[in-house]
Write a structure and sequence with these properties.
Blueprint: H1 2-36
Pfam families: DHHA1 (PF02272)
GO molecular function: nucleic acid binding
Domain DHHA1: 3-34
Length: 37
């Protein structure tokens, strides 16, 4: 029971951090574009 809950929680945390990572990459790309103009 605990193991299953832990796996679900880990998957949720991983998904959340992945969304943050994608947003970070997007912001970084925009920042680079603005500075290269």
């Amino acid at each position: 029971m605990y193991g299953g809950g832990g796996h679900a929680m880990a998957a949720g945390a991983k998904l959340e951090s992945w969304d943050c990572l994608k947003q970070f990459v997007k912001d970084t790309n925009n920042y680079i574009k603005e500075n290269n103009q």
